[in-house]
Amino acid sequence: MRPGRDDALLTDLYQLTMAQAYLEHGLTETAEFEFFVRDLPGERNFLLAAGLEQVLDYLQGLTFDEAALEWLESTGRFSRTLLDWLAGLTFTGDVDAVPEGTAVFADEPLLRVRAPMPLAQLVESRVINLLHFQTLIASKAARIRLAARDRLLVDFGMRRAHGAEAAVLAARAAWIAGFDGTATVAAGRAFGIPIYGTMAHSFIEAHPDEVSAFRNFLVSHPGSGILLIDTWDTERAARRVVELAREDPATKAAIKGVRIDSGDLGDHARRVRRILDEGGLEGVTLFASGNLDEYAVDDLVADQAPVDGLGVGTRLDVASDAPYLDCAYKLQSYAGEPRRKRSEGKATWAGAKQVHREHHAGRMVRDRLTPADEAAPGHALLHPVLRGGEPVNERPGLAAIRDHAAAEVEALPEALRSLEPTIEPYPVLVSERLHEVTREADRLGEAPT
Amino acid sequence: MRPGRDDALLTDLYQLTMAQAYLEHGLTETAEFEFFVRDLPGERNFLLAAGLEQVLDYLQGLTFDEAALEWLESTGRFSRTLLDWLAGLTFTGDVDAVPEGTAVFADEPLLRVRAPMPLAQLVESRVINLLHFQTLIASKAARIRLAARDRLLVDFGMRRAHGAEAAVLAARAAWIAGFDGTATVAAGRAFGIPIYGTMAHSFIEAHPDEVSAFRNFLVSHPGSGILLIDTWDTERAARRVVELAREDPATKAAIKGVRIDSGDLGDHARRVRRILDEGGLEGVTLFASGNLDEYAVDDLVADQAPVDGLGVGTRLDVASDAPYLDCAYKLQSYAGEPRRKRSEGKATWAGAKQVHREHHAGRMVRDRLTPADEAAPGHALLHPVLRGGEPVNERPGLAAIRDHAAAEVEALPEALRSLEPTIEPYPVLVSERLHEVTREADRLGEAPT
């Protein structure tokens, strides 16, 4: 897996069959689609938008190579019309989007695609796949960051992330949301995210005893050795670290930290901290991991457990309490006329939209959803990103995205920064003109009987 | 994403730092590691093993290319010893594994790796990442298959799967567990899984009216047209399908089915079925989708809703009710001596193990966990797969794996085939000799204070 190298066949079959029908019947006028989240999970007071960079990599690199075309033809499902169109395909449309790291809420478009209907439709599946996942993880990670206050936070989730791409992109999304780094080496290489690591229990177990394991690791990694102390008896191991440090100053200097990965983390941390401090190892840091999420992290930090760093794995990388978002990529207009879906329980606002956000005293106070061309107080969240397939501006670097995310979380109303669900959700108003456009769409479309 | 093309850097940093320490201190004797699930989620009565083929692709293709080595060197973290070793690395170890599609339970090894310590350790992160995800999805999909009885089942989950690889491998895992196909085109190409598709609401909305949308799609896809009828009014759309079919026999023949994607699916299905039947469209199939999981499918089928096919998406592809398994890849022996972890709440059985399964009257009745070399009643689940890095046998095809999975689910005790948690879990006995080996490991290792 390398970001930016995409398979054009990573799509739902119906995107191809619909494209064929659009082409064969001349439905090639301009369409506008928007990606948005219908409802926030009950466990989320806000979302952080993420994944735009990978969407742009996908769109700007979109091409059906010879092998893909041959395979499609071999299925016998597709007409010459479709195959010829795919053979010459590149993404020539416009994209407007909310910058990565921006706080967003239900019904607010994160991305708008404007392109000929078959093209705007074709990219749906992968655009959702990319925006959904990183927004999901960044939103989870932001909560863990809030709970951890100023503690060092590292993503440990690669092994239980859902596949290779999820592992690497979860590390990216977590870093955007304020994590300090990841254990996933490929994410370090792909995105320049700082990488962190300690040691596994197997390393201890392969040695005849704990002390020789510690000693060997310190010799190989002087100054970066974080020793895992819970393989057998956590406090005894901490005392051994103290004894080891007394052997000579070089060994002492080589010890960077210790890690606890099981049991009552807060309780062990307090005992271990005392042992280390009494042994003259005040500078040795204490790292905790094991089944952590924002609630467990909050408990540790609120209890003033002396943990300097926290490794959060599975529950971050799969967003275990809310592992998906109810999101969609929906047609908003076709050939200049507003459109919307009215299926039961799934009705949406019609037409291309903009989100206007107002601040007061440094905090965001309300958003207003309007037709894209309506003026409104506050600043607009969606900005032009691609025009005719070409980038409008240079992309922001990952560090700038991360800074933006931190500022966004800082500017949230205080109640939304709590881990508990807010009683009063953030106000997203709907302008009168958007109501009108939506009524217009219903008049143009078909009304329910 | 293409299966079999892996990034050697897709690993946790500590695998590399530990490898360096192993090499520098001569800890290069043979190690045995096993992958197993510690506990089943409360919502699962059994698991279906899956993902072995991708693990073998990874191991057999493992190599650190020039660019990866240069990047590693550029970090300044690694010694010449490690970098030289990585440069010459291929997987030369032994693998024993449970065939894909086999039903497995807590504590039972799905895979054992036997290799020099640095190598056996290095592959941990990606081996877990691959076995965990497909086992997770196959186990979820098997429940949906049980609930659906003989209905056609299609994976619709690509868009909310966690990234590209998750989408493609979820389709594979679901197919193994008895799904009939997937909407994910890349999975069709990669694995030959049958692909299915209908149309989206946007297709309807782009047309001036529903009937012209239906007509255009049928002209472009005669005989495979599944018409989406819930964009505005489901029953009115069904009546329009009947009217359309009356226009001429060719149009009638072109209609393969209809799909309902919102509202009370069972209620709509009954009304729509009646409209179609009364309109002479008894042969037109009815496809339902929208927020389905095994419970919703079971409700529909138990209520005898006239649905022929079901599309299951997000809740399958992220295993939404239990989005991860508590699994591990643990050191079992080093240099011929048994090893185990004894951290609080995470103790395991020591030494290389085998699972023996007994059947009675076509049903599995009990498993027995033993040291790998102990004879026991029943048949052994783990088989040699690689020796010295070379395959022992030809790999089974995906169809054979799928047949095996179906036979395994058929052979489960009846109580385990229920969607409800069993009161009495499947019996996994532990042999007396395995108790002895584990005591031996504790004697050789360190005892808690």
UniProtKB/TrEMBL annotation, chains A, B:
Transiently phosphorylated on a His residue during the reaction cycle. Phosphorylation strongly increases the affinity for substrates and increases the rate of nicotinate D-ribonucleotide production. Dephosphorylation regenerates the low-affinity form of the enzyme, leading to product release. It comes from the Bacteria. Pathway: Cofactor biosynthesis; NAD(+) biosynthesis; nicotinate D-ribonucleotide from nicotinate: step 1/1. Residues 380-437 form the Nicotinate phosphoribosyltransferase C-terminal domain. GO terms for biological process: NAD+ biosynthetic process via the salvage pathway. It catalyses: 5-phospho-alpha-D-ribose 1-diphosphate + nicotinate + ATP + H2O = nicotinate beta-D-ribonucleotide + ADP + phosphate + diphosphate. SUPFAM superfamilies: Nicotinate/Quinolinate PRTase C-terminal domain-like, Nicotinate/Quinolinate PRTase N-terminal domain-like. Keywords: Glycosyltransferase, Ligase, Phosphoprotein, Pyridine nucleotide biosynthesis, Transferase. Gene3D superfamilies: Aldolase class I, nicotinate phosphoribosyltransferase. Its EC number is 6.3.4.21. InterPro entries: Aldolase_TIM, N/Namide_PRibTrfase, NAPRTase_C, NAPRTase_N, Nic_PRibTrfase-Fam, Nic_PRibTrfase_pncB, Nicotinate_pribotase-like_C. Residues 153-265 form the Nicotinate/nicotinamide phosphoribosyltransferase domain. Catalyzes the first step in the biosynthesis of NAD from nicotinic acid, the ATP-dependent synthesis of beta-nicotinate D-ribonucleotide from nicotinate and 5-phospho-D-ribose 1-phosphate. Belongs to the NAPRTase family. This is Nicotinate phosphoribosyltransferase. It comes from Thiohalospira halophila DSM 15071. The lineage of its organism: Bacteria, Pseudomonadati, Pseudomonadota, Gammaproteobacteria, Thiohalospirales.
